[in-house]
Design goal:
The chain has one domain: Alpha/Beta hydrolase fold, catalytic domain (Rossmann fold, 3-Layer(aba) Sandwich), CATH 3.40.50.1820. The longest helix is centred in the first third of the chain and has 13 residues. The N terminus is likely disordered. Helix 1 crosses helix 9. The radius of gyration is 17 Å and the shape is globular. It contains 9 helices and 8 strands. The protein has a 6-stranded parallel beta sheet, sandwiched between helices. The protein has a two-stranded antiparallel sheet with strand order 5-6. Strand 3, helix 3 and strand 4 form a beta-alpha-beta unit. The chain has 233 residues and is of the alpha/beta class.
Amino acid sequence: MPEGEIPAPGMSALCVHGAGGGGWEWNVWRGALEAAGVCAHDFDLLPHPRGLAATGLEDYLAQVRERLLALPRPRALIGASLGGLLASACADRADALVLINALPPAPWHARLPVRDWPEVVPWRCEARLASTRRALPDADDTSALYAFRRWRDESGAVLRAAYAGIAVDAPSCPVLILVSERDEDVPPAIGAAWAQAWDAQLRRCPVDGHVAPLLGREAAAIAAQAGRWLSAR
């Protein structure tokens, strides 16, 4: 292929964001995936019509399934954090699966740090630029400000269900699991054990933080690696 030429898309990918985030988390990844010939689609998970307090995990799962089935095959699911758990649960209808610091299904959920979630987690209401900077230690100031302005509140019921552990069968499609070298939310040892059990490929990302693979300085390089992996499928 001539230098600078963009390959024709060969695979579609649905990108599923994490708790408190939105489709905007995939801005860097979208470009890198498309450069690798993967047509990337992202969206915002929507709360139940009665509000976040009435939103359950199945509400989000239904949205992921519907959007995935609307894509042509071959199609991949890419999920980060909570989005990784949602993607895992819907991977029976995908041709490839990429998980980024994903919340794990049972039995690996038992290794997650213990958390207590209110009915509505006030990540938007109580957002502070200083706490965003701490959550994104390797992001530049512009990226941190961008994220700070876009965090959203989240359903406590969804997070309680995720942390309680759900049963997910290992998919038949190829699986790539990406973990940050340092992640206090989902320790990398969880991803390593999960990858071994599912016979998945494991890649350790040299970044610090749970959302660094999406929003940190190395996000484009990590996304490019994932794009090459997908295009090779």
